[in-house]
Write a structure and sequence with these properties.
Number of helices: 8
Mean pLDDT: 91
Number of strands: 20
CATH superfamily of the largest domain: P-loop containing nucleotide triphosphate hydrolases
Helix content: 10-25%
Distance between the termini: 41 Å
Largest sheet: 6 strands, mixed
Low-confidence stretches: 349-353
Number of domains: 2
CATH topology of the largest domain: Rossmann fold
Strand content: 25-35%
CATH architecture of the largest domain: 3-Layer(aba) Sandwich
Shape: globular
Oligomer: single chain
């Protein structure tokens, strides 16, 4: 086991309920991973198992080559050299920033403890706030104190459990990028748990998307977005619509969607396909003969996000510059650019040999 973290075929159960099933993933030293998924998918349970707060029913968890969890062995959480940043930051309100960061350093002598705290304050750019109390700090500053406290004991891995969820959406993505830069500069291995794909993409090298306790796809953010393994991944990642259409011998799709070439995989004439259509696949074109009725519309400053109706009642999204202002019920002239559309063919029946 040469990886910094190795989770091998892990299953976690609560009585008869299986929360995590047959999950495997690895992280190399200095790599940032993410457990992404909707509520109830098992991501926090898996993080807690890595931290040592939950026992595994099957499989194993190893950190830096040392086995920490099996069904028969459980190294205590406090002995794992794991740092944790919690959803609510869990700062001590009666301690100032300096003493919050020093909390986990009681094993060091006074001089070493003071030096480590000063190092952490500088790392998260909070030297000027060392005497401040948590209630005197902004949400972003509190998050950095929590991060400094978790990093101070020099853990083998840092676990972040929805650390940005109490902050507004714009700040969340900004802080995710800042935390990534800080961790990368210091070679820290980390796992983020989140339900927000923007946080995941801003921070992680590799994202594991969980669905009903299993990994639906583990990949780079780019591949998750552009090459989803199945419809669940396709619908969860990105703001798109799954559209059903038939294809003829020339690759022409029903609903006026345009034509496919063979780069989109093997398909048969007359076959029913499922297409993931994202806003950038539907382009405004002033003189287009294809005009779709506007049934939804949201102003986003520099752009409008339109919800458009296909002839059979299915819907597709479209993003236009904000000066393209079509009222609800009006028609928007568009063209479909299928160059990067994701196509799912129905499963084919196996034939006997």
């Amino acid at each position: 086991m040469n990886s910094q973290l190795e989770v091998h075929k892990v299953t976690v159960r609560y009585g008869a309920f299986t929360a995590v099933e047959d999950v495997s993933l690895t992280l190399e030293k200095g790599q940032i991973g993410c457990l992404l998924g909707p509520s109830g998918c098992g991501k926090t349970t898996l993080l807690r198992a890595i931290a040592g707060f939950e026992r595994v029913a099957e499989g194993s968890i190893a950190l830096h080559g040392s086995v920490l969890s099996t069904p028969r062995q459980q190294v205590a959480a406090e002995q794992r050299k794991v740092g944790m940043v919690f959803q609510d930051f869990a700062l001590f309100p009666h301690l100032n920033v300096r003493r919050n960061i020093a909390f986990g350093l009681s094993h060091l002598d006074r001089r070493a403890r003071r030096a480590r705290v000063e190092e952490m304050l500088a790392l998260v750019s909070l030297t000027d706030y060392a005497q401040a109390y948590p209630h005197e700090l902004s949400g972003g500053q509190q998050q950095r104190v929590a991060l400094a406290r978790a990093l101070a004991p020099n853990p083998e891995i840092l676990l972040l459990d929805e650390p940005f969820s109490s902050l507004d959406s714009e700040l969340r993505e900004q802080l995710a990028g800042e935390v990534r830069e800080l961790l990368k500069q210091n070679g820290v291995t980390a796992i983020l748990v989140t339900h927000d794909q923007h946080e995941a993409f801003a921070m992680a090298d590799r994202v594991s998307l969980l669905h009903r306790g299993r990994i639906a796809q583990s990949d780079t953010p780019y591949n998750l977005y552009h090459n989803p393994a199945n419809e669940f991944v396709a619908e969860f990642i990105g703001h798109g619509s799954m559209v059903s259409a038939t294809v003829d011998a020339g690759g022409e799709l029903s609903q006026g969607l345009g034509s496919l070439d063979r780069s989109h995989g093997h398909w048969e004439p007359g076959e029913h396909l499922r297409l993931l259509v994202r806003p950038d696949d539907v382009e405004y074109e002033e003189n287009s003969r294809t005009r779709l009725r506007v049934v939804g519309k949201a102003f986003r400053g520099a752009s409008y996000f339109y919800d458009l109706l296909l002839p059979d009642g299915q819907r597709v999204p479209c993003l236009t510059p904000s000066h393209i202002d079509v009222p609800l019920g009006g028609e928007l002239p568009i063209r479909f650019n299928l160059q990067h559309v994701v196509v799912f063919a129905p499963p084919r029946e196996r034939t006997a040999d």
